[in-house]
Target: HTH tetR-type domain-containing protein
Amino acid sequence: MELGRRERKKQQTRQAISAVATTLFLERGFDAVTVAEVARAADVAVQTVFNHFPAKEDLFFDESEWWQGPARAIRAAPTDADPVDVLEATYLAETRDRVEVGHLATWKQFMRTIDNSPALLARRRLVAAELETSLTAALDERDPDQLRNRLIAALYAAAQKVLEERLMQVLPDDAGPEQLVSAQAELERAVRQVFAVLRRGLG
Model:
């Protein structure tokens, strides 16, 4: 029971630091904010921040190994499931989860913050590469066709990029509730279109 309380306290502290950091980064830009400023705003020591987030970029991309999601979905799926079907369902589920927690409302500001920071752009490229590697490994566990598996992983990463660009196009700045619903519906249509193209291309 005591361990449970400690873990809950640690999680609360982590969430509080993350919320403060996100607000500062979106308001001022990632490169303009220091870890010391995040610590002061969150009323914790700088070392406490680093205990929870080993690097400043981790404060921004505060989702614990989210890039492993596609690989986890493939490993959890029935062995006879089509991997493209699994990946499409996973992408749609993740999109709906982000809508439910309110991430879609700040999506454009989030992406613009990345585009304006060389450090975040570099981290995002690294994350994309790690996603492809982990997804390829998961696919290899199911199917010996390594070339096809590598292609599926690369196409999935490309699909993510295309869909992010589409969301930037259809999501207005300062979108209200009705506009968010409309943007989500448009994104889901785009998801189905993109994955239909992948299916045809992969045969």
The chain has two domains: 2-55, 66-202. Residues 2-28 form the longest helix (27 residues).
